[in-house]
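Pilot study result, target chain (256 residues):
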Amino acid sequence: MESDDTSVPMLGSQTTSSSRGRVSLLKVRHVSIIASLLPASALIICVLTSLHMHFYQTTNTHCKVKNWLPSLSALVALRPEKYIWKTAVALHFWPRVMMMVTYFQYNRMRDSSFWSWLVEIIFFLELTCLTVLTCVTSLDNFRVHRNSFFAFIAFSTLHMVVRVHQSRRLLKRNYMTLTLVKRKLMITVLYFVSVILAALMYIMHNTLCIAGFYTLFALCEYIVVIINLTFHNLVASNFSDHLLFIKPGELFAISA
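Predicted structure:
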C-alpha cells in the first residue's frame, strides 16, 4: 500500500491547538480496536450475565427442550444485559462512522468509480440496521427487531462482498496487497457459511424441536458477530500506519 505524502508536525501528540480550533490525532488501528472491543466484550459479559441470572428465561423456547445458550435476541432482551449491549453498540457507532469516512476519502482518491461510494453506503446501512435491532429488542417490537436483524445480515454480507471487490480493484492499482485481499475473501466465505449454518440450526430447532439445536443456533450467532468484527479489523489493517486527523468540520487520514 502506498503512503500519502501529507505530513503534519507533532505526530507524537494526541491533541494540539491551532488558530482554527483544537486538533486531535488518533491512530486508525487504535480506533478500530476500540470499536471492536466494545461489542465483543459486551457480548461476553451479556452471555455470562444471562447464564447466571436469566438462564431459564433466555434458553426456554416453544419447543420446551433443553438448551444451554441464549440467542442474541434473547440475550439482549432482559435487564441488565440489554443496557450493557445497547451502551456498547452506541459507543462503537461513532468510531465506525469515523472509519467509514476515512475509508471513503482514502479510496476515492485511488478509485473514483461508484464502488467507492457504494461500499460505504452499504457499510452505513449495516451500522444503521445494527443500531435499530439493538435499540428495539424482540420484546419491544418483534417484527421491527426481526426485520432489522435480517436487514443487518443482508447488508453486512453485501458489504463484505463489495469491499472484497473494491479491494481487488485497488490491488490492480498496487494500493492493496494480495495477502490482504485473500484474507478478506476468506473471512467473507466464513461469514456466509456461519450465517447459513445459523439459519439451518434455527429451522431445525423450530421444525424438529430436538435438544441442542437452539444452542447450536446461538453459538453460530456468536461466531457471526466475531467474524464480522474480525472483518472490520482486517479492513482497518490497510490503514495501520495512518492517523486520523480530527478538527472541527474536518476528518481525514494521514500517513504516520
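One observation from the pilot: The mean pLDDT is 87. A full batch analysis is planned for the follow-on phase.
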